[in-house]
Amino acid sequence: MRSMSNKGRPLGAHNHFQCTRTHQIGALLLVLSTFFFTSLFRRPRSHDSTTFSPDLIRTPGETPLFTDGGDLSWPHRGYGPNLDLKIYVYDEDEVDGLKALMYGRDGRITPKDCLKGQWGTQVKIHKLLLQSRFRTRKKEEADLFFVPAYVKCVRMMGGLKDKEITETYVKVLSQLPYFRLSGGRDHIFVFPSGAGAHLFKSWETYINRSIILTPEGDRTDKKDTSAFNTWKDIIIPGNVDDSMTTNKARVVKPLPLSKRKYLANYLGRAQGKAGRLKLIELSKQFPDKLESPELKFSGPEKLGRAEYFEHLRNAKFCLAPRGESSWTLRFYESFFVECVPVILSDQIELPFQNVIDYSQISIKWPSNRIGPELLEYLESIPDEDIENMLSRGRKVRCLWVYAPDSSPCSAMEAILWELQRKVRQFHHSTETFWLHNGTFTNRDLVKFSDWKSPLPLP
């Protein structure tokens, strides 16, 4: 035990520490070395292509940072420093009914048929996950499970009717023990159109806990409830034509602002929608400022893909009103012809909002104020400001491209980061039970390893 009496060295003038030049140099070196190592540890750690750089996270009052190379820094906040996922992809031959959801009842629809237009993300995400380094072939170690289906395409091409889609989905789900084990919480479904998960008429009964990938964050215009849930679902970019997303072989190149004929354009069908009809009427009042022909999808007036993008690039601003639903592919296409997108869809949800500050790369205008006031506002914006918005847009458009997750920046890479946030250490449902030794059972206390298909569903 330490003595209470003070037997240490007496304090006095003769015991003061004398600071020599050698000590001063040593102290300076210590300070410099401390600063060096502190800076070293504070630098972002270098990872593989799962990390973007520099940081896009914005604090109030700050402008987000963009790099000339188009790489973005995915935020560590809520994510961690790197991707660590294992995704099991169900094989089409593994589950009775999957082939019908992918190729129709007669198997005559091909993946190539389904790659075009907004349907394409169902095919692309499936194919990219099959190639992904995060794919696992062992169900027991998977964090998430992907259920492939091309039902939007299959339905539009007559491969399945609405009733058949619902019956086939239920048939497929009844054969998936891991779906039943988690109540569907760790299963992923892609619904790439404006209808969202409503293509599966009984989605609310069977997959209301599952992770839904969709460009559609709102469908309450035609349904009582939206199938999109911000807690579990993920907004994905629309499917821009591949001929426009490949830098080296882009079919149509952007024009300099000085050579663009129009202030703004809207290229699309009217579909009887108020906002679109207003734009078509506005173009008749101001034909020198706004190009807005009603597109034809058949006959001699139909625009080919290259012609469509040639028209789109000929304006400073690309107007993107809502159609049958709130999302619009035109928003994503505008980045590849380098016109500033002007969103005229009040309920729209945009992807990856925790990374991208959309106020820096686009404009959102109230849909009930479509008229001359809109054109006057757009005309007042200096070309310098437009160029700055286009420059920032070039840096983020890589996130609209469905490329392998090995790419330094892609839609697939961003989706995987979002999926990582959905991984849960623990899952349970109303039909799962567990015992003291970690065994999971059903209501009859049958162990999970002994469950047999088909399984009862809600």
UniProtKB/TrEMBL annotation:
Chain ranges passing through the membrane: none
Cellular compartments annotated: Golgi apparatus membrane
First and last residue of the signal peptide: none
Keyword Thylakoid in record: no
Keyword Transmembrane helix: no
Highest taxon of source: Eukaryota
Molecular function GO labels: glycosyltransferase activity
Name of the protein in question: Exostosin GT47 domain-containing protein
Native organism taxonomy: Eukaryota, Viridiplantae, Streptophyta, Embryophyta, Tracheophyta
